[in-house]
Write a structure and sequence with these properties.
The chain is mainly β. It has three domains: 41-185, Cupredoxins -  blue copper proteins (Immunoglobulin-like), CATH 2.60.40; 194-372, Immunoglobulin-like; 392-539, Immunoglobulin-like (Sandwich), CATH 2.60.40. The strands form seven sheets. It has a seven-stranded mixed sheet with strand order 12-11-10-14-19-16-17, with no helix packed on it. The protein has a five-stranded mixed sheet with strand order 3-4-9-8-6. A hairpin with a 7-residue loop joins strand 1 and strand 2 (68-79). Mean pLDDT is 88; it is low at 1-37, 328-352 and 447-452.
Length: 540
């Protein structure tokens, strides 16, 4: 373990008087802090599945010519079915992991990188020391052992690097993959399975003339978020999805660092959504397009049964407003309209970022070609599952929501006016365990204490259990941007990430059950996260 980081955390726990309260949640941390040892497998944890994941520097053949140097996670099954780990060749993506609800999993993470790193299980409900907090980052040659039970309902989850200050670069270099959970309820539904159930991650990347990944972290791209020049599907360029003329389940993940997609079919067909971050919806929702912010997942039902062999379709990201940063005196009387950064015409930083695919622009994302006649088909169920709605009156703070104010100024990205620091949990960031909390993301530019503010959307993510969105409110002056995305927002179901447009407030209910300890909340624009738009909260 990185003793400097762990000793900082240990001193914090000691000086704040909460060491005893969280010791039960931090056995591995306390051992590491006291002895410098890496955490050990627990004798009383009877794993159903054991997996070894190694983080390595390697090269893959993505284009013709030179291989591309990447940081890649590679996996193998030590105990359990070999189908649990699907290593993906010819791509920078990490293995796709397939687990069942109720399974107990032990994962050995080995770091062979020339840097410290750690993996976060995005969307999973796990103990705090198994969540991938940056304080647990391991150095080259070290191993971290995860042990947790799969408590989540069936759904499309994922995992990625969460190393402090360099998450964006490490994820961009390849350290992210799908984590797909199944359960008996889902398996009993007549949904497309096997080769008709397809996880698809959408990312944007830039490459130089020698096929090497290009990533810059200048001021403009730290504030806007990195935008690549090329769309990659499952880590492959110029991707074409071959399909039969039948129905498919497409599990879409936005694995981009910062790019937000407004996805629509080029022939005008509506989009049918059957699942969100936390699994299936109660019933399908048909909408004209679907918004997909970084880290969000949307499961689609797509039926190609009326398409002739040879038909080609393209899913595009179509234009929307408010995608790029603009400046202004946020909250000040009258504001500044386009602001000093955007200038007349609202060019904003999106078009100044250097990408040939500007934020909020129009460009192809996924090409589909019908290549084969199907022998069978599935019908879309009218009802998928049951979801118990959370109620504001049951929240511990039903009349006093916890506000997370989002704000950006010159070289600052803040939550409630604070940048990320270890050992800096404030009283309003302490939450009782086994409580339901009423919370809100407020993107009206307040909370920084700075005059010159910069407005843009933020994909906000909370670690731990999924939450339910109960309402959205738009401030005056932000209606046009919101109207350009509103029909593609799917707020029903369970979520771990919410797109919060500029001038918007999103209110939600989040349970904090089972596990004490430290968890994170942050913007999932990864450049914003690394810039400091991230905080810890303590469950005790």
């Amino acid at each position: 373990m990185n003793n400097k980081i762990n000793n900082q955390r240990r001193n914090f726990l000691k000086t704040t008087g909460i060491t005893a309260a969280v010791a039960v949640s931090y056995p591995s941390f306390l051992r590491a802090a006291n002895s410098g040892a890496i955490n050990k497998a627990s004798a009383n944890f009877q794993a159903d599945v054991e997996i070894e994941l190694s983080m390595d520097v390697t090269k893959v053949q993505i284009f013709k010519g030179s291989k591309t140097r990447i940081w890649k996670v590679q996996g193998k099954v030590l105990k359990g079915s070999p189908s649990i780990v699907n290593n993906l060749t010819g791509t920078y993506l990490a293995p796709t992991l397939h687990l069942q609800k109720g399974q107990k999993v032990r994962i050995y993470l080995k770091n062979n990188l020339p840097a410290e790193s750690i993996l976060h299980w995005h969307g999973l409900h796990v103990p705090s020391e198994m969540d991938g907090n940056p304080m647990y980052a391991i150095n080259h040659g070290e191993t971290y052992i995860y042990e947790f039970e799969i408590l989540n309902r069936a759904g499309t989850y994922w995992y990625h690097s969460h190393a402090h200050g360099v998450t964006a670069k490490q994820v961009y270099s390849g350290m992210a993959g799908f984590f797909i959970v199944s359960d008996k309820e889902e398996q009993a539904i007549n949904l497309p399975k096997d080769q008709y159930d397809l996880p698809l991650v959408i990312q944007d990347r830039s490459f130089d003339s020698n096929n090497q990944l290009k990533y810059s972290n200048n001021m403009m791209q730290r504030m806007q978020g990195f935008l690549g020049d090329q769309i990659m599907i499952n880590g492959q360029p110029d991707f074409v999805l071959p399909v039969e003329n039948r129905s498919y389940r497409l599990r879409l993940l936005n694995g981009s660092n910062s790019r937000i997609y407004k996805l629509a079919w080029d022939d005008g067909s509506p989009v049918t959504v059957i699942g969100t971050d936390g699994g299936l919806l109660e019933s399908p929702e048909t909408i004209p397009y679907v918004m997909l912010a970084p880290a969000q997942r949307r499961e689609l039902w797509v039926d190609f049964s009326d398409k002739a062999i040879g038909t080609e379709l393209t899913m595009r990201s179509i234009p929307f407003k408010g995608a790029s940063m603009h400046g202004g005196m946020m909250g000040g009387r009258g504001g500044m309209g386009g602001g000093m950064m955007g200038g007349r015409g609202g060019m904003g930083m999106g078009r100044m970022s250097g990408s040939s695919l500007p934020a909020g622009g129009d460009y192809p994302v996924l090409k589909v070609k019908v290549v084969k006649k199907a022998k069978s088909n599935d019908s879309l169920p009218s009802r998928l599952t049951s979801i118990k709605p959370l109620k504001a009156k049951d929240a511990a703070n039903s009349t006093n929501p916890r506000t997370i104010a989002l704000s950006m100024g010159h070289m600052s990205a803040l939550l409630n006016g604070r940048s990320y620091k270890m050992n800096d949990i404030r009283p309003d960031e302490v939450i009782p365990v086994n409580s339901l909390q009423l919370m809100e993301f407020d993107n009206n530019g307040r909370g920084s204490g700075m005059g010159m503010m910069m407005a843009m959307p933020h994909p906000m993510h909370l670690h731990g259990e999924q939450f339910q969105i109960i309402k959205r409110e738009i401030s005056s002056g932000s209606e046009d941007a919101y109207a350009s995305v509103s029909k593609g927002l799917v707020d029903n179901g369970w979520h771990d990430t919410s797109l919060v447009m500029s001038g918007e407030k999103v209110t939600f209910l989040k349970p904090f059950n089972d596990f004490k300890g430290i968890f994170m909340y942050h913007c999932h624009n990864l450049e914003h996260e690394d810039l400091g738009m991230m905080r810890d909260y303590l469950i005790k």
